[in-house]
Amino acid sequence: MHVGEALIGNDPELAHVDLLIGDKNGPVGQAFASGLSHLSQGHTPLLAVIRPNLLTKPATLIVPKVTIQDLEQAARVFGPAQAAVAKAVADAVEDGVIAKDVCEQYVLIVSVYVHPDAQDYEKIYRYNYGATKLALKRALSDFPSVEKVLYEKDRSLHPVMGFKVTRLWDPPYLQVAFDLTELDAVLNVLDQLPTSDHIILEAGTPLIKRYGLGIIKEMRKARPSAFIVADLKTLDTGNLEARLAADEAADAVVVSGLAPTSTIDKAIEEANKTGIYVIIDMLNVDKPETVLKALKSKPDIVELHRAIDAEDTAHAWGNISHIKKYAKLVAVAGGIRKDNVDDALKSGADILVVGRAITAARDVEGATRAFLEGLKQSDIDQYRVKTDF
Fold this sequence. Notes:
Elements: E1 2-8, E2 15-23, H1 27-37, E3 46-47, E4 49-51, E5 54-55, E6 59-64, H2 71-94, E7 106-112, H3 121-140, H4 146-152, E8 173-178, H5 183-192, E9 199-203, H6 205-211, H7 215-222, E10 227-234, H8 238-247, E11 252-256, H9 261-274, E12 277-281, H10 288-293, E13 301-305, H11 320-323, E14 329-333, H12 341-346, E15 351-354, H13 356-359, H14 364-375
Parallel strand pairs: 6-7, 8-9, 8-15, 9-10, 10-11, 11-12, 12-13, 13-14, 14-15
Antiparallel strand pairs: 1-2, 2-7, 3-6, 4-5
Helix pairs in contact: 2-3, 5-7, 8-9
């Protein structure tokens, strides 16, 4: 059995095709017979024909995705969409995409999308033809490879979802820590920050203590596509606080490295369920590696953190190369300035956490750009068009 998918065209005639191709005596054949004999109101399956009384080969069953409610909708599916699928299958055989010697052995099930507002029959035909042929080619070449899926999963944007989920796949990043305690001040800084794919926003612990986790949504209104960290410094009920952060649309939750191992484990487990990151803050932890070795699962990020109240002490960066054995990324916080950005990066840091050097700057945008220049990173083209034809 082979599975294929393709989307081609523009609204409202846009075509989206999902298909299965496989042996008549296998699961695709069983589904083919079941689909043809078990009708569903509004989704009546039909055989693809080149013209009346001439089936395409391999035999192909078309299943409408959109509920057909009137004869006009039915005509679009039974007319241009059906003809497009049938011709695409036949042309795929002629082009060698489908071998001629399997045409009597294989069957296809093609699910087609025809919008109720689609009017242009020529576009319906051409888009569904292209989508079917592309889906077939992909199915029989086992596209995409697992490697491509893993490469694209954090880089691509789903156009219909309505919002972007940002993932941290291109370090280093600049994390702007909002330890401010006035909402107006936070919004003012957010308004001045430049747009960059390499900026992370942090709702600091004092800010959350004053406004609660609802501050995350206020920040997201100002920066809808930002990666936002909820710095809870969780010490207990790890699963509950990770869930609360996720419910408020945070992308990451911070757990204290001083918490019991079971608390950290539960936070990581819950975060994995909801698709957010866990950051372990090693503030006041003497031996971070000891904490990390005891965990059941790796955290996404470990933060090596020097406290604001201990700025007269050395940086708590530790041995980052050793820490990376137990975490995907390492962040450094406390006393990060423009003059030590290079040192932090050379030490192996993936994320530079900067607070007052940006949020209290007279020129917030200028200060932020200076740090970004130190990262030596170009912006990510999240909106690139990926057709994979």
